[in-house]
DNA sequence: ATCTAGTCAAGAGCAGTGCTCACAATTGTT
DNA sequence: AACAATTGTGAGCACTGCTCTTGACTAGAT
């Protein structure tokens, strides 16, 4: 642990480094397959080693522990989700804030339904005994919420956002909460006022709440055949809750 | 598996049955402790057996498998949450619908923060390889949402509910979605119109989304010191979203 | 009181897991 | 070709869920 960071960013010149990087990529790829097939808690380094065609102890040359592999998969999934969201949002005109918001929500939902195990790793209950190292996950882990507040802040600056949405207008923002919101506004360089920001947080959590219920099967197997329509309705309400004009 | 159900409902007269029931209670109690301490995925029948002062294979006399114990704990947790919600809601006057709604939300959040592992078992990512048997969990599992729609339906019948809340009024409810809502209205004997019901589903999922983010640490360790205030704000907005007058 | 039948705990055992370590094989570099 | 760093091997430890046989016990019927 002298200074491996510059080496990691270097061009991987030596064959050893190239081979090592390729092996780690293989391990992550096989881990992703196992994650998708059997879920995060069933992820086994021994099984990954078998698929890699190597004895179990060999993978510890490349991955420190099972947790380390989980962290790699976590960052991988966060970036995949972030890419999907950025692509979907970027496909809409820059001034179509409502369209961008709906694209964001739909992108998260589609990715979650396509990769339920990865989604569970990111937004489900934390896997036991595993604490995601903040310094490696906060960056990719906040891409979605950063994109969301970027949309809301852009709409606010463009004058396309109601003061607080029709309902949040008369809900108090206490002094303590206002202090938190001021911190966030400062750190992210936002212009939106408190009621919009507070409602935005609720919209953020509500979006993932609706998606989690669907992905995790909380609706039950029978209720809500028309889940696309249900989610579209929720997105419409949430857009209004955020203050977006339609 | 001839007909054990009537025997289970009988008075447990014989000493054998009494001792057996007591042992199962002990197992569930120890399981709850382990669940709270180490989480659902780390729940080990062997560890439970050790705490029970018995060899590991002995617990299989009382509990068919690890899944069986998880199901017992699941039902236990659902009922505990349902009891907490019912008590909190029942403490408010019957016609104070907004108060009842806020009491429901606060009760769920308080229980979740006090029992994060149990909450994760109920509303987090499903534990791998474990499928909750619907016939034993749907009853207690729906108590919270039943209590929620009871509040909204009562408010509607009492004329204390806006047609759809200020924002949901102009969000379409498509024909497909209306069919689902009609089913739900029929099964639960509700009177609320489609926009209220659709918004109610969103309020339901949003409530758990906000609580899950807080319990599962999605907010991050630093953001939102004033989490009580944040949740109170969200509850206020959600009440208005549901159409409750304040 | 004895016999019988049901119940229960014990312990061995199987297959799997994460992880460590000493040793051997390989491979890039000198 | 020789050296040294790296990588793969296999044994081993402690743990898990779960099964099965064996022996002890107990409750009710004779």
Describe this structure in words.
Two copies of one chain form a homodimer. By secondary structure, chain A is mainly α. Helix content of chain A is 68%, strand content 0%. Chain A has helices at residues 4-9, 15-38, 45-52, 66-90, 97-114, 116-123, 134-141, 143-157, 165-168, 175-188, 194-215, 227-242. In chain A, helix 5 (97-114) crosses helix 12 and helix 8 (143-157) packs across helix 11. The model of chain A is unreliable at 1-9 (pLDDT under 50). Chains A and B meet through helix 6, helix 9, helix 10, helix 11 and helix 12 of A and helix 6, helix 9, helix 10, helix 11 and helix 12 of B. Chain A binds a DNA duplex (30 and 30 nucleotides) through helix 2 and helix 3.
Summarize the structure in short.
2 copies of one chain form a homodimer. With 246 residues, chain A is mostly helical.
The tally of beta strands of chain A, per DSSP, is 0
Shape of chain A: elongated
Straight-line N-to-C gap of chain A: 54 Å
Task: Give me the Rg of chain A, rounded.
Answer: 21 Å
Succession of helices and strands of chain A: HHHHHHHHHHHH
Largest sheet of chain A: none
Mean pLDDT of chain A: 90
Largest interface, per-chain counts? A-B, 62 and 62 residues
Quick tags:
disordered N terminus; 0% strand; homodimer; DNA-binding; 246 residues
Topology (elements, then pairings):
2 copies of one chain form a homodimer.
Chain A: H1 4-9, H2 15-38, H3 45-52, H4 66-90, H5 97-114, H6 116-123, H7 134-141, H8 143-157, H9 165-168, H10 175-188, H11 194-215, H12 227-242
Helix pairs in contact in A: 2-3, 4-5, 4-6, 4-7, 5-6, 5-8, 5-11, 5-12, 8-11, 11-12
Chain A binds a DNA duplex (30 and 30 nucleotides) through residues 14-16, 19-20, 44-47, 54-58, 60-62, 65-66.
């Amino acid at each position: 642990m002298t200074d491996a960071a510059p080496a990691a960013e270097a061009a991987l010149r030596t064959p050893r480094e190239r081979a090592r990087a390729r092996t780690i990529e293989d391990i992550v790829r096989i881990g992703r397959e196992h994650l998708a097939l059997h879920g995060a808690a069933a992820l086994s380094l021994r099984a990954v080693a078998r698929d890699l065609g190597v004895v179990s102890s060999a993978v510890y040359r490349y991955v420190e522990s099972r947790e380390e592999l989980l962290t790699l998969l976590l960052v991988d999934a966060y970036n995949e989700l972030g890419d999907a969201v950025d692509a979907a949002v970027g496909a809409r005109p820059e001034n179509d804030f409502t369209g961008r918001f709906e694209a964001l929500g739909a992108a998260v939902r589609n990715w979650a339904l396509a990769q339920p195990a990865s989604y569970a790793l990111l937004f489900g209950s934390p896997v036991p005994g595993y604490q995601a190292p903040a310094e490696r996950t906060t960056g990719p882990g906040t891409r979605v919420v950063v994109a969301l507040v970027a949309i809301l802040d852009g709409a606010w600056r463009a004058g396309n956002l109601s003061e607080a949405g029709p309902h949040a207008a008369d809900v108090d923002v206490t002094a303590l909460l206002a202090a938190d919101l001021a911190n966030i506004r400062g750190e992210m360089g936002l212009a939106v006022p408190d009621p919009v920001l507070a409602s935005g947080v609720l919209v953020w959590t509500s979006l993932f709440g609706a998606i989690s219920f669907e992905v995790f099967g909380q609706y039950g197997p029978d209720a809500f055949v028309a889940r696309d329509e249900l989610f579209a309705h929720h997105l419409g309400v949430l857009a209004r809750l955020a203050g977006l004009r339609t």
